[in-house]
Specification:
Strand order of the largest sheet: 1-2-3
Structural class: mainly beta
Shape: globular
Number of helices: 0
Oligomer: single chain
Order of helices and strands: EEEEE
Largest sheet: 3 strands, antiparallel
Radius of gyration: 13 Å
Distance between the termini: 26 Å
Length: 66
């Protein structure tokens, strides 16, 4: 089941996705992003992260927890 969050500003539901990308130096890194629809690469909230909302746009973002 994908992690979902509802925007307080717009009321839309966003689903967390992950994707492994290769950087220029050849290093692989996992990136996380939110989308309006849950696709096959939807994932759960990773450990050590929390979700915050951009106050101007209402879009959710991941933030490292302290």
């Amino acid at each position: 089941m994908a992690y979902s969050v509802k925007s307080q500003k717009t009321g839309e539901t966003y689903y967390l996705h992950s994707k492994e990308v290769t950087l220029r130096g050849g290093r692989k890194q996992v990136i996380y992003y939110f989308a309006r629809e849950a696709k096959d690469n939807a994932c759960e909230l990773p450990d050590g992260y929390s979700v915050m909302e951009n106050s101007r746009t209402g879009l959710p973002m991941l933030k490292k927890s302290k």
